Amino acid sequence: MGNSMRHHIISAKCGHDDSLKEVKMGFRAGIVTKDEFADTLRCHQASQDETKSEQRDRARATRGY
Q1: Terminal Cα-to-Cα distance of the chain (whole angstroms)
Q2: Which among 5, 7, 25, 53 counts the fewest CB atoms within 10 Å?
Q3: For residues 12 and 57, which has the higher predicted lDDT (pLDDT)?
C-alpha cells in the first residue's frame, strides 16, 4: 500500500467523506485489505457520530442546509 492510500485511510478515520470513497475504491481494487477497510469504516462512523449534536442540527435546519 502506498503513502497516498495511507493518507486517505487516516483522513477517512477522521471523518473525511471523500477520503472514505478513495479507500473504498482501494478496497475494490485489492490495495486495501478487508480488515483495514472495516476498521476505517468503524472509525469514520465514530468520528461522524462525535460531530453530531442537537445544536448543529437546529442550525442546519434554520439555515436550510
Answers
A1: 37
A2: 53
A3: 12
